[in-house]
Amino acid sequence: MVQLVTIKRVYKFYFFEHISLEETNNCLILLNLKNGEFYESNETGKKIIELIKQNNSFDSISANLEQIYSDYEENDLYVFLKGLIDNGFIYIDKESS
Questions:
Q1: Is the pTM of this model over 0.70?
Q2: DSSP assignment of 26-57, as one string?
Q3: CA–CA distance, 72 with 65 (Å, rounded to integer)
Q4: What's the alpha-carbon Rg for the chain, to the nearest Å?
Q5: Mean pLDDT value across residues 15-30
Q6: Which residue, 18, 34, 51, 87, is most buried by CB atoms nearer than 10 A?
Q7: 69 C-beta neighbours (distance < 10 Å), count
Q8: Among residues 38, 41, 48, which one has the least CA distance to residue 25?
Q9: Where in the chain are the domains?
């Protein structure tokens, strides 16, 4: 099980200014305008991204997903967020604690 011990439950996440979001059907495509890299999310990823855009903390995102998906695993949220952070799409606001 992968966990991001550096993510506190109260931290919020933000997209870098050079990230463009494009909606297609039931997914979102994130495009890094600086280097051309992109990420295509599934429907669950789209929901997480929408919750990030609404300025939700990790706890709030997790609670929302738990209400929507009966098979929700918090570790999946950690892994998804780690991927977005590692690939330069979002950053953690450590001042939001």
A1: yes
A2: TEEEEEETTT--EEE--HHHHHHHHHHHTT-B
A3: 7
A4: 13
A5: 92
A6: 51
A7: 13
A8: 41
A9: 12-92
CB 86 within 8 A of CB 92: no
pLDDT digits (tens, 9 = 90+) for 40-73: 999 999 999 999 999 989 999 999 999 999 999 9
Q: How far is CA 72 from the centre of its chain?
A: 15
Does the structure show a pLDDT above 90 at 95? no
If you average pLDDT over every residue of the chain, what do you get?
87
Phi, psi of 62, deg, nearest 5:
-60, -45
- CA-based torsion, 79, 66, 5, 53: positive or negative: positive
State the Cα torsion 50-27-35-92 to the nearest 10°: 30
Give me the pLDDT at residue 3, please.
43
Chosen CATH of 12-92 out of 3.30.70.100, 3.90.930.60, 3.40.50.720, 3.20.20.80? 3.90.930.60
